[in-house]
TrEMBL record:
It catalyses: tRNA(Val) + L-valine + ATP = L-valyl-tRNA(Val) + AMP + diphosphate. Residues 1-25 are annotated as: Disordered. It is found in: Cytoplasm. PANTHER family: VALINE--TRNA LIGASE, CHLOROPLASTIC_MITOCHONDRIAL 2 (PTHR11946:SF93), VALYL-TRNA SYNTHETASES (PTHR11946). Its main location: cytoplasm. GO terms for molecular function: valine-tRNA ligase activity. Its EC number is 6.1.1.9. This is Valine--tRNA ligase. A motif ('KMSKS' region) lies at residues 607-611. PROSITE patterns: AA_TRNA_LIGASE_I (PS00178). Belongs to the class-I aminoacyl-tRNA synthetase family. ValS type 2 subfamily. Signal peptide: none annotated.
Amino acid sequence: MTSSASSTRPAPAPTEAIRPVAQVPDKPSLEGLEERWGAAWAQEQTYAFDRSATREQVYSIDTPPPTVSGSLHVGHVFSYTHTDVVARFQRMRGREVFYPMGWDDNGLPTERRVQNYYGVRCDPSLPYVADYTPPHDGGDGKSVKAGDQQPISRRNFVELCQRLTAEDEQQFEHLWRYLGLSVDWSQHYQTIGDRAQQVAQTAFLRNLARGEAYQAEAPGLWDVTFQTAVAQAELEARDYPGHFHKITFHTPDGESVVIETTRPELLPACVALIAHPDDERYAHLFGTTVTSPLFGVELPVLAHPLAEPDKGAGIAMCCTFGDLTDVTWWRELQLPTRSVIARDGRLLRDTPDWLTTEAGRATYAEIGGKTTFSARAAVVDALRESGDLLGEPVATQRKANFYEKGDKPLEIVTSRQWYIRNGGREVPGRDLRAELLARGDELDFHPEFMAVRYANWVGGLNGDWLISRQRFFGVAIPLWYPVTADGEIDHAHPIVPDEASLPIDPSSHVPHGFTEDQRGVPGGFVADPDIMDTWATSSLTPQIAGGWLVDSDLFSRVFPMDLRAQGQDIIRTWLFSTIVRSHLEHGALPWAHAAISGWILDPDRKKMSKSKGNVVTPLAMLEEHGSDAVRYWATSARLGTDASFDPQRPTQIKIGRRLAIKVLNASKFALSFAGDSPVRLDPDAVTEPIDRAILRGLADVVDTATAALDAYDHTQALEVAETFFWTFCDDYLELVKDRAYGREGLDPAAVASARAALSLALDTILRLFAPVLPYATEEVWSWWREGSVHRAAWPTSDVLREAAGDGDPELVAVAGTALAALRKVKSEAKVSQRTKFASAELTLDPANHDRVLAVLSDLRAAGGVAGDLTLAAAGDGTDGVTVAGDLLPAEPKQ
RNA sequence: GGGCGAUUGGCUCAGUGGUAGAGCGCCUCGUUCACACCGAGGAGGUCACUGGUUCGAACCCAGUAUCGCCCA
């Protein structure tokens, strides 16, 4: 892929005369480059997307919108740099890069921040108040007690969320600009913005129209703190302390059946006892009944393969609902529903009607309204008293499901919720799971093994995607329901808005054909009170950023996108859900490639996290070391590989800083030889063997780096460029500097050869480093070139090969070895490298004799040999180069 | 319990069949002449372990151990 004829950036003409070098600082420095070039790039719109480009010319990137209410940490800088390196590489290759940035301001973290910041809470039943002023504005950041928070309408609440996130977003943008992300900032979006809401609501309604979205009254995971349903993808299994309680049930003929449970408070919700069908201990009980202790409910004893014979007593009580296994049993064995846990996590206050014994109703009256914790203690006391508790409870650690943002174990509560099909549940006539697995195979994961995580997740789904949330700050589910004449809500016949009217808030907008005074009255309508899960919006980032629905011209040029960049932790959420939406809506993958970044680990190999107190403020880090240095560190870690980071010992960052400084200094040096005459990139001028050899080596480096970046291996590309560059500085520059200075008596063609080779090499080196070190390379570029290096073409090896001609690829290494041998003599003699040899003889492998002869005069100059430098053949089997020579006394200091 | 990844010099990591590599750190030396945010030279490893395939294994195969992550 090369730059097209229609591109605004002409391909460079390598032989053209370039203006004389100007404006090279005496002491080049990294300090201040971020501000200077950041401003220049903004001014020049260096990274603006040219929407006249065709789809083939475009390279489009779908980047994770960071949660603006959270804080950015080192890990963000790490992974966003990976994406930027790709973007810059593709831009230089001539692709028109579509690189928008989004902000994820939708969702729970923002809600919590807004509540504290403004002292408000959302009450969707309240009407909108125009020109609302919240009780606090900023305050001291302390949380305001729930009781003191002023209740406001959802629309007012959302407005406050938007006001606050707008401030956060400015800080985020500043960081990203400082880091040097080559984002087109005119393309940014917010996941709570009108565009995002329109996209999310339209996509949902289309899912609904196609039968891919549906509502169901079903048991589901429920967070009692936030009082919202939670999806499978948001689960986190954590260790949770508990106790095994041995509880006795009784058969009609007096036999005791002992089960073990960690949740005795669910005893009134028990609907059966269940053992494995092959478990001989309980075979005689299958089909019979037992009676529960305390509550006296008659329950069947049933067989099901999910019962684990070697766990506890091997027979379990099935309650509605203690865990997901209970749900499976309940569904597959068609058990009754006897729920006792309310949405606030307490036991139902009213005594359930399936408790019929007087003692049972009395016991329940004691625990109704209590938290599960208190109810458990009460039930255990009662069991102990009735003699149905066998022994004392035994402490245990068990795995419990938590909402990833919650701190209490999830309960399972039956509620009406909206779902989108994702292959997790069978649907007649379609194998959606297989379709989505095929999409995963179609997607190019980098690294490839990350595809397994996708496949494992899709293969292990056990339900459709629950998208409704009983929260406030989010995209509303755009539906109303009729209220029947007798005041019932008719959920089966939702009232759907026109697509053209989206986005809407059904709690403040009125459906077509109704008036506001019909809200909530018989014969009228009610709004669906829920919002969509954040992922239900962010799963549509390619559509939101790409102009779906509103700009079909743009959308056709950028979608499906080329790249999704993200962390490995959200493959099951963001990556998967985006594929689901795109597959359902467009019948296509949303992107061709997925670049998965690894974790940042602290020195103890633990994931960096705020709670562990090991997070470094990214902006401070950039300011301290320089953005190029930090970018070098990020680029030196491969995709998918975790990188360790010790803020106390930022070794890799310092290496990056050293490299960036070296680029400045070496460039200044290489450009200094031209004096006042124009620099020429003339391949025909390169005639000396060592000059040809260095360009030959660089041509190979270009090919390797290009292939590596094409394969999304930025690390290898950086490594080969870096290795070349150090050899270029340490050996080649030293070897040719005397000649390049144009000392008296030298052949002018030899001088021109060195200068041309240095210019050609520098031109290529700057381009190679530009994606990783955008500031240092741009700084150097400005000394002798027009325009931005970031709009220059990616280097190709052909000009270099032309200049190299028959250049010997081994020559630089051999000359370097000879030079090192001369240096070693001085080093071991403990004298300055500037000490001269009176004369010297190099003993070396005869095979390299001619090579050294070809660079002899450069070697004499660089090695400081005043008199003759002669060569001798080493004996058989002798490796390397040895030196015999007399050092002259050091010249006296002046 | 299943899956994925890792295990190479003090540290961080390259290296997919042909005599062990880099950078950092360390040791020694050096500095007006691009660069002390520097330069030169040097020391340092039986490639986690056990078998196997091969003329030859850090690399391929089987297994083991340890660590990390994901899923149950």
